[in-house]
Amino acid sequence: MKTCQIAPSILSADFSRLGDEARAVIAGGADLIHFDVMDNHYVPNLTIGPMVCEALKPHVSVPIDVHLMVRPVDRLASDFAKAGAAIISFHPEASDHIDRTIALIHDGGCKAGLVFNPATPLVWLDHVLDKLDLVLIMSVNPGFGGQSFIPEALNKLALARSRIDAITARTGREIRLEVDGGVKVDNIASIAKAGADTFVAGSAIFGGGDYKKIIAALRAAATGA
């Protein structure tokens, strides 16, 4: 298994002091800052855009992991690349030309990821997995934080892990397998056993008080799986 990465989702942070919150979770051991972008079209919620990413960038010393829940994708992907994102992931249903969007993200100097909703089949990976840097499995339906983990995501993670391992064996390409939604200390071990190596956690971290203690507990449970 690759090195475990913990990615606090700032969707659950105190937005009135976002810079302080980002610095606090990084000091507590965060490997990434997960940045949820919702447009009230692809998902029924409206969050934050490139200007917030650009404003947050000077406050963070780890990569910003942008998850685009938007339609269309390409314009915002380019804007977030310019705003300081390191990783940009998008949903295949939201792009008219998936291969072109992946290339656009790479051209902007970022790593590219493809995101799968709970009922979205992995067949979208068939012709693009060798170009991706990350596969993100949603273990909740996107749009809102604080939801419960959907157990079927474990089967999907295992299938995605098999696909990724096959590509890595053939090409040597490193592809992270990320999971987002309902990740907590009491279920992260089973999620890691299914094959995930990167874990997004929002309310479990920001709602827990002691960020360093919670991140350490998440990491210990995942690496001990």
Describe the overall structure.
The chain is α/β, with parallel strands linked by helices and 225 residues long. The protein has a single domain, classed as TIM Barrel (Alpha-Beta Barrel), CATH 3.20.20. Helices cover 35% and strands 18% of the residues. It has eight helices and eight strands. It has helices at 18-27, 50-56, 74-83, 98-107, 153-171, 188-193, 203-206, 211-223; strands spanning 5-8, 33-38, 64-69, 87-90, 111-116, 134-138, 176-180, 198-201. It has an eight-stranded parallel β-sheet. The longest helix has 19 residues, at 153-171. The protein is globular. The N and C termini lie close together (10 Å). The mean pLDDT is 96.
Describe the protein's topology.
Elements (H helix, E strand, L loop, with lengths): L4 E4 L9 H10 L5 E6 L11 H7 L7 E6 L4 H10 L3 E4 L7 H10 L3 E6 L17 E5 L14 H19 L4 E5 L7 H6 L4 E4 L1 H4 L4 H13 L2
Parallel strand pairs: 1-8, 2-3, 3-4, 4-5, 5-6, 6-7, 7-8
Helix pairs in contact: 2-3
Gist?
The protein is an alpha/beta fold.
